[in-house]
# Entry
Amino acid sequence: MSENRIARNYLLGASGLSIILSFIPFAGFLVYPFKLFVTFIHEGGHALAAVATLGDVERILINPDTSGLTLSLGGISIIIASAGYLTSTLYGAALLLICRNGKNAKAALGLSAALILGLTVFFMDFRSGLFSWIVGIVLAAGLIFFAVVSNPKVAHFFLSFLAVQCCLNALYDLRTLFLLSATTREASDAMNMQRLTFIPAIVWATFWLGLSLVVLWLALRHYFERTDSTSGSELSA
# Structure
């Protein structure tokens, strides 16, 4: 079986498994670490945007309910507030494209582990955020395990599942943000944007959701076009 067909089967299998788990009662604990991973990426997006716009990050907190908080000073507030949800989507899309080639799986997992570990070491407050530290270390250790110890096929499937979970959770979080923005005035990134721009939070939630759908659609389109064209080349060779 060609490498491209294997990659497609892994992606479809990871998608099917994610759908099945969503219908199984009490199966949420199985995907709980992946939800925490997406929260890390979301809050990491805020933190990196703050640093990139010459601001300072006071600390990142990850909560047991998979919510998170990034406290920053300075920087360009509009960019910082927008970075969380968009970073989660872009990271998921990037993992999807990396999944096309199983040879890249272990490297992608290793880089993800380094990112989580870096966020934990530099931005987590050990005294006030013990849970954040524990989660960061456990997530990084798990990613390193699959990157170093697992065989290439297991690492490839795990990366495919991680990509699917990252994309699904990014969209789920945006759906929740949309509903909150439409029905409440609860604190959120969209409410922060409303305060900064005087544009209603529901507009920002809709914009981020629409943009995320476009990004993921383009990533999937490129993924399947690339695998189809490569498979065709292999058959004609």
Summary: The helical segments are 3-23, 28-52, 77-98, 105-123, 130-148, 152-183, 189-197, 201-236.
